[in-house]
Amino acid sequence: MGLLDGVKVVELGLILPGAALGHLLAEQGAYVVKVERPTAGDYVRYFPEQVGDQGGHSFWHLVLNRNKKSIMLDLLRQEGQEVLHDLVRGADVFVTNLIADQPARLGASYDALRAVKPDLIYCQITGFGATGPYAALPSHGLAMSSISGQIALEEQPDGWLEQVRDKAFGGGTQSAGQPVQTGPLWAAYGIASALWRRSRTGEGAYLDVSNSDATLATAWIGMPDALNPGAIRIEATSQSQQLHSARHAFYETKDGKHVFVAMIEPKFWAKFCQELGREDLLEGINSDVEAFDAFDAERNTVHFRALQEIFRTRTRRDWTQFFVDNDLPNAPVNRISELADDPQFVARDVFVNVERPDGQGTFRVAAGPVRAAGDTRRAPQPAPAPGQHTNAVLQDVGYDTARIDALRAAGIIS
């Protein structure tokens, strides 16, 4: 049982942000109906990164549309809009990433849907928001990143401009992650909040979520300094220096792999040195200090050289067990290809297998990270074929076979 079991969602949109938002809700048990265009459906299915050789199975689709139902509906026609209204009448939440007046042209504006479902939670998630001079501007991920100050550029010898790491404090707004990932998280948070309010007041809500706004709100590490020039004094204090010290760095292990250490607090450094019998490295360290001890450049060099040698004496696996056994805030540095075998992720069932739509085995994905005590993780349902559940979804809202057949014959559904 998921935290959103019993919540019914209608999702109308194309490609990533809308699908990602519906995905987050479905992961928590919501019943999500994805409304797609006739014939082709959402073209996220046809992105070039395909799984299998049948076409129409991009990994984006397999990841973001799992656990959903698909219905194909022609919303350019009045009859199709009436079907949509019937779906919404029995729903709790409507989500769309269509911009400007596009929802209104499809009979899916907030006013139109609120008329059939007064307590509806309506979430419009777009690149730049529903208001402002850019509201009607189409956008993809990099456009959202560009307006959000995430793009630092460097000219290459051939004249092309390449993205580089932002050297601003905290990584600037790059610290927030990709807008098409960040925006849906804030939108899901808003929907959950609106559902809670509705449970107390009976009120629906219109939620306007901008992916670019979400990026700025999430960049709480890198934004304050940029927004307040001269107001934040970044001193060469023990704290800032320790964050760039030998005790907060990466090291190679015996097997050519790597670990990250973060023993900036003296108590962790003392524990590490004592367990290894290297009390000589504690000279000049005040282990009674709670947070950050005094930084010494010469001592830091000694520590760095010593740690280089120390970490080369054991494998990454052995060092990881040492960290666990001694409660040290260090970690193995995994490659992407190694994640599914890390014992921490294995123990938490982080990776699950979804049946491939082409019937050729399974496709491994990362499951949602929110775990409610007592809930059992359900096997994920594969991403649907276009219109796979049209009949079942319409039957759920009371349509009989004759009416469904008539709609299909008229080209309203497929």
Shape: elongated
Helix content: 25-40%
What is the total tally of β strands? Answer: 13
CA-based gyration radius: 26 Å
Low-confidence stretches: none
N-to-C terminal Cα separation, in Å? Answer: 31 Å
Give the strand order, joined by hyphens, for the main sheet: 3-2-1-4-5-8
Topology order in helix (H) and strand (E) letters = EHEHEHEHHEHEEHEHHHEEHHHEHEEHH
Q: How would you characterize this protein structure?
A:
It is elongated and about 85 Å long. The chain has a 6-stranded parallel beta sheet with strand order 3-2-1-4-5-8, with helices on both faces. The protein has helices spanning 15-27, 59-64, 78-89, 102-105, 110-116, 141-147, 179-201, 211-218, 223-227, 238-242, 266-275, 297-311, 316-325, 343-347, 390-396, 401-409; strands at residues 8-12, 31-36, 68-72, 93-96, 121-126, 152-155, 161-164, 205-210, 248-252, 258-262, 331-333, 351-355, 362-366. The longest helix is centred in the middle third of the chain and has 23 residues, at 179-201. It is an alpha/beta fold and 414 residues long. A hairpin with a 5-residue loop joins strand 9 (248-252) and strand 10 (258-262). The relative contact order is 0.13.
Name its key features.
414 residues, alpha/beta, 6-stranded parallel β-sheet, 3-stranded antiparallel β-sheet, 13 strands
